[in-house]
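Chain A, query sequence.
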Amino acid sequence: MVQVYEVKQKKDLKKFIELPYQLYRNDNNWIPPLKKSEWDFWTNHPGLHKNTVKLFLAEKNGRPAGRIVFLINKKYNALHNKKTARFFAFESIDDKEVIDKLFARVEEEARTYGMTHIHGPLGFNNLDHQGLQVEGFDWPRTMVSVYNFPYYKEHLERLGYNKEIDWVENRIKLNENAIKRGETGKKIVEKRYGLKAWQPRDKKAFESIAREIFDLYNESYKNLPYMVPLDDDEIAFYKKSYFQVLLPQWAFFAREPEQNRIVAFLLTMPALGDALRKAKGKLFPFGFYHIMKALKNPKEIDVAIIGARPEYDNKGAAVIVFEKFHAQMLQKGIDVFETGGVFETNKPVLANWKNYDAIQHKRKRVYGKSL
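Chain A, predicted structure.
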């Protein structure tokens, strides 16, 4: 017997958060997030109070078997004059009845609120872990991407959900061609536009420009699909979350010296997948040690966010930050990095990889359905 109910009590939220740890406990490709961070997200995220949000848990024979979040992103609908609901944080055992009842519930909620379309997995904004993985299941998940079972795709398509757009991900090896092109391009862009590479000297200096980074994120991402600009509360929340793992030595910027403003940025981080698997979702007693070790001596790098002011999209500002990134990788003896999801339609960013030894190895998707 399958029962779906709304999560309203602390004990049910605990079951909701714990479910993925149970589902993926024997899957080495999954990265268990820190439970403290998950609890913080589902209790303190500003979007929980500014939008219509309902968390649902499915139980089969009295045991947790699936979960899903129903979300009406009010800001997104207002910006685009839409009547669209989102589903998010979907996880389930491979059981038709469980999955059917979860999606029936969110679709029923959407109709109740007068929505005419539902799509997802989509969160409060594009900084959340969005999309459903549809390719690349042989590769381990990275911190900046998602991971799910292959059967999720089959069930969504069976339920009438269709592709809206994909993100693609690449695994990239630094080579001599990319290094030389970066060095040459940097000199040209510096001379033509006066831009200079810059990095914060320490954590304090890095955090002092957090607001400028998020404002530039809002500006550079404003025309991308599903984008919702961050407000002050959300910036404060993501600053706290992101700056726990972002390090100044792995953050790269292009500045206009005369106006002293950032025009492009590249935020990267040491790959923490193996460390988090060893931590098993807990900082203590040993998780902190594994994470700090991975941060200090990384073997690979994950690219988290790339952005530039729109007026610099075609002026080579990205060359400035990537050349500095190359130099840091070479200094640390690292030659491999992985990208997070880039929309398949975002040709300017995807063009950055043409000079490397790159393979497009993963793909994740937003599915939609008319109601």
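The chain is about 40% helix and 25% strand. The two ends are 27 Å apart (CA to CA).
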